[in-house]
Structures are given as C-alpha cells and as structure tokens.
Amino acid sequence: MSSESEPQTIETYPGAQAVSRAIALLKAFDDAHAEWSLAEISDYVNLNRATTHRLLAALESEGLIQRNTTGHYRLGHELIGLGGCAMRASELREAARPELETLARETGETAVLEVLAKRHTLIIDEVSDRDPLGISQDIGARLPLHATSTGKLLLAYRPAAEIDEHLQGALTAVTPHTIIDPATLRAQLDEIVARGYAVADGELDVGFIAVAAPVYDAGRTVVAAVSVGGPALRISPERQPEIVASLQVTARRISRRLGYRPG
Amino acid sequence: MSSESEPQTIETYPGAQAVSRAIALLKAFDDAHAEWSLAEISDYVNLNRATTHRLLAALESEGLIQRNTTGHYRLGHELIGLGGCAMRASELREAARPELETLARETGETAVLEVLAKRHTLIIDEVSDRDPLGISQDIGARLPLHATSTGKLLLAYRPAAEIDEHLQGALTAVTPHTIIDPATLRAQLDEIVARGYAVADGELDVGFIAVAAPVYDAGRTVVAAVSVGGPALRISPERQPEIVASLQVTARRISRRLGYRPG
DNA sequence: AGAAGCTCTTTCACATTATGAAATGATAAA
DNA sequence: TTTATCATTTCATAATGTGAAAGAGCTTCT
C-alpha cells in the first residue's frame, strides 16, 4: 500500500532478479557496516523481509554469508576464497606486479594498484619497500574517490555525466585537507587530465602524500590507476618530479603489458 | 544418495534456485581453472547454455564476473572487494591474529589459520617470521584435505559419515609422500584425534613439514586449524616437541578468545 | 568461395520458481 | 502479565526464470 518514491532501487538484470537482489545484499556489507540484522538489511536494500530472509539463507548455505551467535549476518569465509581466487586470476594484477615492485624499490615507498568500483576505488595490489610485514592488509579495501590520488584520477577520466553525478553527491571530509567543494574538485580533475597525473596531499590521511597515474588497456581506456605514496616528510617538493617520472614510466609499462599501443 | 556417475547436480536452495545456480557458477572458478568459455562452464555445472549466459551476464553487470577480450569469463574485481571485506570482518581471524604473530615469532616459522571449505581447507590468515615480504599471497587459497596437516586435522574431527565420504573420493598424490591409501589415512585421522595434533611431512611440498592443532568455538566445535610449518631442515625431530607445545598453547588461546571454556 | 561447424546471443511461449502479505514463533522490553 | 520487535514459515498468486529453437558471428575445412 505504500509505494513511495524510492529509498533505494536495485537495478535488477532482466531474467535474474533474484541474483541481482542477492548481490545487492552482499554489497550492503562493508568495513563500516560489517554486520546486519535481518530487519536492518531488508530495510536498507528495500526488500521484503521474507524475501531477504530466503536469499540470505541461500547465501548462507553456500558459505557466502555467515551468522553470529546473535543471529546477525556477516560475510562468509567462502568469499575469502573467491576473493583470493579473483585476485590471483586478475590479468591486470599479473601485468602490474613486477612493475609495482620496481616502482616501490626505485622510490623506497609504497606502490598501489587500484580500479574503480562503483563509487569507490578498490585496492587490487600493493607493494611496499619499507613496511614489509603487515602489507597486503589493504587489498580489497575501498576508498572514497574524492580523497585519494587514484580516486581523483580514475574519476577525472570518466565521462562528464558521471563526474557531474559524483560531484552532486555528498563529499565528506576525511581530514581537514579533503576537498569538499565541487568547483575546486572539478578544477582539479581538469588539471589531472591535462597533466596526466594526480596528487593527494593529506586528503585521506594527514601527513600522507600520494601521486597517481593512469593505466590504459588495449582499447585505450583507463582501466586502473597506479600510485606511489609515503609520509609528507619523505615526499618533499624537490623529490616530487623524480617520483612522478618513475610513476609515469611504471604506468606506461603496465599499459604496454595490457596491449596498449601509443599512437 | 548421490551417484558419482551423474554429471553434477546443483543443490538448489528452495525458493532461490537462480541464486544457488549463480553461486555454483562462481565456485566453478579456482586457481587451476581461472578462465572458462560459456560452453565449458555450462557443461561443467550442467545448466542450459541460455540460462548460464543470462546468469553470467547478471554477475558481470555487478562486477563479480569479468570478460576477456576473447569473451572468456573470469572472476571480477568486485569479488576482491567482497573477499577483503569478509577477511577483515572475520571474528575468527581477528581472534587469531595476535596469537599467530606470537607463534610465528616464538618458532621463527610461518603460522597459518585455516577453515574447512567444502572439500578443501581454506587459508584465512598467515603470518611469517622469515619471509616477511610476499606473504598473505596465499590468503584465500584452497588446499587438498589429505595432503596438509590442517586438512587432515579438520577432517579428523568431522563426523564419521563425512570422513567415509572423503576417503571414497580420489586421493591424488601431490608429492611422492602424499598419503593416497584410504586405510593409512584413516589410521592417521584416528591418531590425530587421540594426540590432538596433526603432522604433514612433505605431503604437499617436498621438504616442507607442518604441524596443526584444532581451534574450538564456544559450542565446543572445531571451527578452524592453526599450523606452523617450515623447511624440513629447520623442523628437526628434536625441535618438534617444542614446536607442538607452542602450537597447542596458541590453539588453546585462540579457542579461549572465541568463548571456548574447557571442562 | 561456399559449406559445415563451432560458440555466443537473443527470442519467446510456458510453468516453475520467486514473491510478499499475513500468520506464527521466539525474545526482549515495559 | 502485556506489548513490542524481530525472525521464521506458510501459501496463494503471478511474475520471474527457464530452455528449445532460431539467429548471428566467426573459424575451419573442402
């Protein structure tokens, strides 16, 4: 009886509604909201409670979802397996690995590979020259587009309509340096395309600077971003040109491996 | 109840057939078979080609599946994100992390946490004292039950019927030392339960020895296995008692953190 | 070049499968 | 106790998913 405007609409793929809905349920989970009750999640994805319950039960029986002692839902172990498999099977990651290692060694900093995933940037691989232990902890993590060098870069190369859509949305300040003014951000995006690289200075973490460059595939589309970053103390203004140069060589080499041919 | 001669039957969860089928498609991908053509995978999971095509298209539109230039299917980047999220959200991993670090430090070897996933053991976390770089590469990897210390241990604590079912299946030799005789393996499983730990000596990798111990949850069920392992050269017979002792303390501490109370 | 064979993709009539309102359990708060 | 909230099950309904068949590309053989 209450068919209001639309709190959240699931784009259902024709002939696979149940599958699209099940995936929407999985995607409701993230680092900020790792656990849901049935009522919460069914409200969130705007599905009937019975339907939600049935879909989650199916996902649980396959190990993609797990339940607490309290009956709350979490992502299941089977997803760790699928994620690891997806990671190892990624052609992009395979092509980038050796180049990331070189870049990390050359600069002495951390080299990262990221792709665009919905409204965030997704870390595909990470190599650090310093911090050898405890790395790869961030693989699979999602970060906001407007507060990262890679995110701004990946956004900058998208079609105008998509950029507009993002600038409409709420730009939350992660640090005091995060750019939250749409006009300022848009100006930066134009600059990024003009220069071919992006910089983020304390916009995600205070005292952390990163630069990012685009990776192209054989179809000359930007499919990923490479970045190098480290503490602002080490990434001095004098060092930046050298770092950007190494970064751009890396980005070009990865693109080459993906079949990109400049012309 | 299931005849091996049948091609492959998907256990469809009532009221979510399409979801179960879509998940079966995802699970068809593993390290050994990371890429499928439509014809291959539809034969493998025993689904109509049109149905398979539609389900894969739905998965692709959500980023869980990706396609090659050749049109072949692979797991998609979105799964890396979900996998990372599942990993960071795992209560088990959270409870085990500090203990694994202690164990790795104490022994100077590699400590691993694994759970049972279908017919394999799944690596949830890994901490190495030696090899600091390039670790965590194995997180999400699946290994055969009969060729690993953790696998044998996890199997040993399962109900008899399940053990029988596994021993029926093909036990493939990964190395010359892999146990492929069902009777020998069964005897080992009994011994494992009696002693409370498992050993694998060159059964997965030649020259690599590992020992594993069970992790219990609040319900006194074995939910995971911890192991320590290293080159046979370092894991001498004299050192083994000391290593097993450390391992068992670790396993008990993790269990304690999960709410297990001995009695 | 044309035919034959292959795989991928789309269509469409049909009914199986998924849906959600409502009823029922189960638990917690008043 | 009653009241409220959340999880689970049921079941009539039709919308969704299904698969045979035909179409569209592309490769290989004659």
Supply database-style keywords.
homodimer, 263 residues, alpha+beta, 6-stranded antiparallel beta sheet, two-stranded antiparallel ribbon, disordered N terminus, DNA-binding
Model description:
Two copies of one chain form a homodimer. With 263 residues, chain A is an alpha+beta fold. The termini of chain A are far apart. Chain A has nine helices and eight strands. In chain A, the strands form two sheets. In chain A, strands 5-4-3-8-7-6 form a six-stranded antiparallel β-sheet, sandwiched between helices. A two-stranded antiparallel ribbon of chain A has the order 1-2. The first copy, chain A, has helices at 17-27, 38-45, 49-61, 77-89, 91-107, 149-156, 160-168, 182-195, 240-257, and strands at residues 65-67, 73-75, 110-117, 120-128, 142-144, 198-201, 208-216, 222-231. Chain A is globular and about 60 Å long. Residues 1-6 of chain A have low confidence and may be disordered. The interface between A and B is large, with 64 and 63 residues. Chain A binds a DNA duplex (30 and 30 nucleotides) through residues 14-18, 37-39, 47-51, 53-54, 57, 71.
